[in-house]
């Protein structure tokens, strides 16, 4: 393989899992460069536990191969190689879809180890991570932008949660892939950064700010619906048997999460200081 047709980036998560993402040929360079820039990947110096080889040599109109999601954690500790072949990128919609699918592939590895990809914003204060979750129209992005210092918004759409060997949950910001539909290639997220997850906040619109604890069962059901939103791209296209296995694993991971991380319902108005309610339970 000629070196001019090869670029790679490294992605390291808080649980110690490492990925390398390689452009296998010239056709995949735009995708590899876009994912590396968006996720702020480090330069790869060699093979990792997971090695992803990209190719984009499928012609327009041809069928897209099924995404090789990771269904179990029984793979070997090093040298796992995965090949992904995509249709040649011709517009921003294709590029956003391909990056989203690569994100789901990586997230499936995290879920195989007890993690989760959730449709929720990640906020941080004094080294403590808070998941702000809810349906698409609840106002996660607006709430994230309204947070005052020393609060910090890490992501406004999705969050990847991984679990360390000792059981601690760590939260990584995840890109907002839809931002690329309008040609915004300048946005990036420090996906390799992480904070300990301290609480899950399930947001709901209200007339005034109020926070209340959620029972574990109710929290698990609400989080499952939110998790499914992060995986919507597969719900109509992926093999149903495999999809059922992924969903069962996801729900089990959610049930384990709510046993260790407190969950709350937060009612917030359009202009109230909702973060003060969160600070009361931290």
Describe the structure.
With 282 residues, the protein is of the alpha/beta class. It has 2 domains: 109 residues, no CATH class; 166 residues, 3-Layer(aba) Sandwich (Rossmann fold), CATH 3.40.50. It has 6 helices and 14 strands. The strands form 2 sheets. Strands 6, 7, 8, 9, 10, 11, 12, 13 and 14 form a 9-stranded mixed beta sheet that branches. The longest helix is centred in the C-terminal third of the chain and has 21 residues. The N terminus is likely disordered.
Label the structural class.
alpha/beta
The run of helices and strands is EEHEEEHEEEHEEEEEHHEH
Name the overall outline: globular
Q: Would you report the number of β strands?
A: 14
- Share of residues in helices: 25-40%
User: Regarding CATH, which class of the largest domain?
Assistant: Alpha Beta
The low-confidence parts are 1-5
Number of domains: 2
CATH architecture of the largest domain: 3-Layer(aba) Sandwich
Q: What is the end-to-end distance? A: 53 Å
Task: Tell me the β content.
Answer: 25-35%
CATH topological fold name of the largest domain: Rossmann fold
Mean pLDDT: 89
Radius of gyration: 19 Å
Oligomer: single chain
SS element count, helices: 6
